[in-house]
Amino acid sequence: MAGNKKKGIIQTKGKAGNPTNLPQKPRAERALAAGLPQKMPSKSIAPAGSSAMLPFTERLLQWHNEDNHRLMPWKGEKDPYKIWLSEIILQQTRVEQGLSYYEKFVRHYPSIAQLASAPEDQVFKDWEGLGYYSRCKNLIFTAKTIVKDYKGIFPDNYDQILSLKGIGPYTAAAISAFAFNKPYAVVDGNVFRVLSRFYGVDTPIDSTKGKQLFQKIAAENLSQTKPAIYNQAIMDFGATQCKPAAPLCGSCPMGDICQAKRTGRVMSLPKKEKTLQKKNRYISWIVMELQSADPVLKPNKATLDNKAHLNKKADRHPPLYYIQKRPAGDIWENLHEFYPIETESVPEWSLKPSLLIRMLENLLSIAPSSGPLSIEAICTVTQQLTHQKIHGYIYKLCLTSRPSIFPINNWYSAKKVNDLAFPKLLKNLQIEAIPKQK
After folding, report:
1. Equal fold, 80-268 vs 281-433
2. Which parts of the sequence belong to the HhH-GPD domain (predicted)?
């Protein structure tokens, strides 16, 4: 028999007992179908009949039943709407941070129909501070789609769920499994890490090959009768036991058959092939405060809460502030900001404010007869995003007349400003830059 074998080919028997030639697969992949690691421990380490011989899935479910004490409000939830909310909120967000937002959204928008009909600015305000605002935009769009195309009932078909905006394979699998108990395996960061370490797979998880391989591994280990319980168990296992930086290998129920532990590769798995390239952006935000009465301003939907501004006596009404929305296609889309000036590097006026005054005089077309501009440096702030770091320079500019280049509807009272949704970086400085009105 040995003389008949070809290099890279193993000989095995098909269902009918007939020899079948199959390509030799890597050791990690050959072990997957059985739910076992690449190389089982010797009998001296794990005697026959011991718990070490249990397959991955059985051990995981046993751990879940006996030792998984992780509590979250959405665990065991069967309402697809609430599951969808929790999954979208937790994308790129720690559970500790997302919990209060989940509870707020469930309280403010108990149903898909109520979310779909809510004013968008109100929804963005409730999302304020959570970051990754495209998630909120997609949340609103998908809620309206479900109301329009599915009569307000969340679809229970995986492909239909996957077709909804903002929902990828992971979220579609989670909704299918948790809400409808359908056999779809979730693959998130926790699952990548657990399976990569247990099976000793070093294929990069961010490569096309890696994504396909780990999806296959996850599907083969999935409990067909308890998909919801299994998916919750493996995510919790990754979050509490097989953690990224401080895994609890000493108390791990998989420890004696975990390939990463046996080969000393726990901290080097999973692998990634791409290095995230981050860039720096430098933005100066000008908080423009209009202090005197401006008879050109008229009451409208943007300034109804500040009718007193028509009084020509400046000391009888509060000041107004210029606010605009962030542009489409850039960070913080649909959120609000003060007047921005972006530069390629650290702005030179950060060291010499007089340069900013001259620039603003030109930008705002302020006549010399209006008197010198009064500008104050408020603070510098930074925020690290996934792909870029924002360096913010905040200035307060006091005006006695409204520059004609700015639309009338973009001037707001301090009370109204504090009701608008801002990026976290700018929201934190409002207390310093704008006095709150009662």
Report:
1. no
2. 89-240
Q: State yes or no: pLDDT of 245 exceeds 90.
A: no
Q: What are the backbone dihedrals phi and psi of residue 27, each rounded to the nearest 5 degrees, phi first? A: -55, -40
DSSP lists the bridge partners of residue 320 as 290, 413
Long-range contacts of 399-404 (CB under 8 A, 24+ apart): 399/288, 399/289, 399/290, 399/291, 399/373, 400/290, 400/291, 400/292, 400/370, 400/371, 401/290, 401/292, 401/294, 401/370, 402/290, 402/294, 402/296, 402/297, 403/364, 403/365, 403/366, 404/365
* Residues acting as catalytic residues: 87
Q: What are phi and psi of 23, to 5 degrees?
A: -60, 145
DSSP secondary-structure letter at 4? Answer: G
Instruction: For residue 118, give both structure tokens.
Output: 């809510």
Centre a 10 Å sphere on the Cβ of residue 95 and count the other Cβ atoms it contains.
14
Q: What is the pLDDT of residue 157?
A: 97
Q: What is the end-to-end Cα distance of the chain in Å, rounded?
A: 90
8 Å CB contact between 402 and 379:
no
pLDDT score, position 437: 53
Predicted pLDDT of residue 49:
34
CB 365 within 8 A of CB 405: yes
Q: 80-268, what's its fold?
A: Endonuclease III; domain 1 (1.10.340)
Residues 6+ positions from 418 with CB-CB distance below 8 Å:
430, 434, 436
Q: Which H or E run contains 427?
A: helix 424-427
CB 224 within 8 A of CB 180: no
Prior bond of 270 cis (ω within 30°): yes
**Hey, what are 241's tokens?**
């036991």
The CATH number of the structural domain formed by 281-433 is 3.90.79.10
pLDDT band at 351 (very low <50, low <70, confident <90, very high): confident
pTM flag (> 0.70) = no
CB contact at 8 A, 269 and 244: no
Domain ranges of the chain: 80-268, 281-433
